[in-house]
Amino acid sequence: VTPLKILFTGMVGAGKTTAIGALSEVAPIRTEAQNTDTSVNKENTTVAMDYGEFTLGDGTKVMLYGTPGQGRFDFMWSILGQGALGVIVLINNAAANPLEDFKVYLNAFDEFAARGAMVVGVGRTENGVGPTLDSYYAVLAEQGRIAPVFSADVRRSEHVLMLVDALISQLELQEEISP
Ligand SMILES: Nc1nc2c(ncn2[C@@H]2O[C@H](COP(=O)(O)OP(=O)(O)OP(=O)(O)O)[C@@H](O)[C@H]2O)c(=O)[nH]1
Ligand SMILES: [Mg+2]
Asked: Which atom of ligand 1 is nearest to the CA of 69?
């Protein structure tokens, strides 16, 4: 069986590295460097990519890639997107402008959204601050796109698995992959 490639993307601190670490069955490959961006309270940041692996119930291998969040590495987005079946956009809902953040990734990965290969995972919803899930659907509708939006805490592997499952179901529905 051909392995499936899935890409995690989103702003600095959205939780891409955490999500891949939570789900991967192998020791994830990380390219962390010391974070010098004081706008996010985080010790490390990804400078090239994350990589992990996960096996579905039917034995299909899923390759999990993650993008770096910092804007200076945005040239990596299209490189890492190559050959990806779908993309999971992670959002830090407690950030200053999470809906604007979402628009950046929705536009950058519109090719995925257009073919129903995008899932949105909204994190840091626990304190009830930040936009509602409905407002993400409104942004999608404005752009003429449809994608499932979930609240997800990527520190919990079952939440990350839910995002991956939702993406795979979408891809099956689009007949990008067979069930
Ligand atoms: N409280 C809370 N913390 C969260 C939640 N989701 C993620 N985090 C934390 O947010 C941080 C995310 O850090 P990373 O996984 O390094 O984020 P990243 O997207 O890889 O960031 P860059 O590589 O810098 O772009 C971690 O410290 C997580 O524990 C959430 O839902 N609630
Ligand atoms: Mg990272």
From this structure: 25
